[in-house]
Specification:
Blueprint (H helix, E strand, L loop, with lengths): L1 H12 L2 H19 L4 H29 L4
């Protein structure tokens, strides 16, 4: 799901916005998972991490492809 959302957002606003959003959401998920006091919170944190990981990986691939383009 994160890949699809970040791809659409990158088409509309450029790749930097979904990449930054993905890093922020991933950080929140990591912190939330680290301080989770119940299994439900831990599952929610892992879901956030998965979503954000999809966003970051898709846009990172886009950064790589555009930076390696011949001039």
């Amino acid at each position: 799901v994160g890949i699809v959302v970040s791809g659409g957002l990158a088409d509309r606003s450029g790749p930097l916005v979904p990449f930054a959003l993905g890093v922020v959401v991933l950080t929140v998920g990591l912190i939330l998972g680290g301080v989770a006091s119940s299994m439900g919170v831990l599952i929610l944190a892992r879901m956030l991490q998965g979503f954000a990981g999809g966003c970051v990986s898709a846009v990172a691939a886009l950064f790589t492809i555009t930076s390696m383009r011949p001039k």
